[in-house]
Specification:
This protein has helices spanning about 10-25, 40-45, 55-65, 85-95, 120-135, 150, 190-200, 220-245, 255-260, 270-279, and strands spanning about 5, 30-35, 50, 70-75, 100-105, 140, 140-145, 145, 165-170, 175, 185, 210, 215. The protein is α/β, with parallel strands linked by helices. It has a domain at about 5-145 and about 190-210: Rossmann fold, CATH 3.40.50.720. It has a six-stranded parallel beta sheet with strand order 3-2-1-4-5-6, sandwiched between helices. Helix 4 (about 85-95) packs parallel to helix 5. It is globular and about 75 Å long. The mean pLDDT is about 90.
Length: about 280
């Protein structure tokens, strides 16, 4: 059994990883966060340890005190002033007597210095890898493609923040880049968590691992969405007919509402008010 620390494990991919580890129960997992949160820790089922990412020494002490063998980072990799938190975490893991493994926060695709001008996060990810190469930690990088969470909708649980890219499912719009014929790998964060949890069983890691939930070109993705919308339209048109011919105008006489008035069914006004409060 490994004792694992997930940095930034209270949300996003980090939380998906934590919950996967907790669910299978083979390894012990703890969350590193800037703030303690006992109620959230109880909800997730893993302790939240407050840490200072600006102090290497105190981070090392936290890792040793909690006997952390493996560190998994899901730290947001945008530029920051001073030393990047993930770099500090790597530097703290290196001297820790208990820590031997590290997974940096990539969760995307393989990138090199020729691409570092494309996005501010890329140099930060490369910086973390350069820092790991200076250590004797065993490490691996996970490449998962593009997150399917952005298109799965609220019916499939996700802790990843919403992002509209290429296809806007809600507004039935798409802006396809290029030809739209290049295959794209898509993986849901919950599946990422399961594979990362499984990889903790491996005695030796490869330098990197790929997780491919599914593949499609953007044109294929749009076609699939259109097909699903057409099927939904046929289904909804049936309701339209039934709405108009009075089938849904149920007889109020003898309704259970009258027999059990104390239950107090939800009214339309209250439902709409609740929906508006979410906007």
């Amino acid at each position: 059994m490994a004792i694992v620390a997930v940095a930034s494990g209270t949300g996003g991919i980090g939380r998906a990883i934590v919950e996967a580890i907790v669910r299978r129960g083979k390894h012990n997992v703890k969350i590193l966060s800037r703030k303690a949160n006992d109620s959230l820790a109880d909800e997730i089922g893993a302790p939240i340890i407050p840490v200072d990412y600006s102090a290497v020494g105190s981070l090392t002490q936290v890792l040793e005190d909690n006997e952390i063998d493996t560190v998994i980072s899901s730290i947001f990799t945008m530029p920051v002033s001073g030393i990047a938190p993930e770099v500090t975490l790597i530097r703290a893991s290196q001297p820790s007597r208990t820590t031997h493994r590290f997974i940096p926060s990539n969760w995307g695709v393989p990138l090199d210095k020729s691409r570092e001008d494309l996005a501010p996060s890329i140099p930060m990810k490369l910086l973390a890898l350069d820092e790991l190469k200076k250590t004797d930690l065993e490490y691996t990088v996970f490449y998962v493609g593009f997150l399917l969470d952005y298109y799965a909708g609220p019916s499939i649980k996700s802790y990843v923040s919403p992002l509209i890219v290429v296809i806007d499912m809600e507004c039935n719009m798409a802006a396809i880049p290029g030809s739209g014929n290049m295959p794209i790998a898509f993986t849901h964060s919950l599946d990422v968590g399961k594979y990362v949890d499984a990889s903790l069983d491996l005695k030796k890691w490869d330098a990197s691992y790929r997780i491919i939930g599914d593949k499609a070109t953007w044109n294929e993705f749009v076609k699939l969405a259109e097909t699903m919308k057409e099927s939904q339209s046929v289904f909804l048109s049936t309701f339209g007919l039934l709405f108009e011919d009075g089938t849904f105008d149920l007889e109020e006489k003898g309704a259970l509402n009258n027999l059990f008035p104390e239950i107090g069914a939800l009214k339309i006004k209250r439902a709409v008010q609740a929906a508006m409060n979410r906007v």
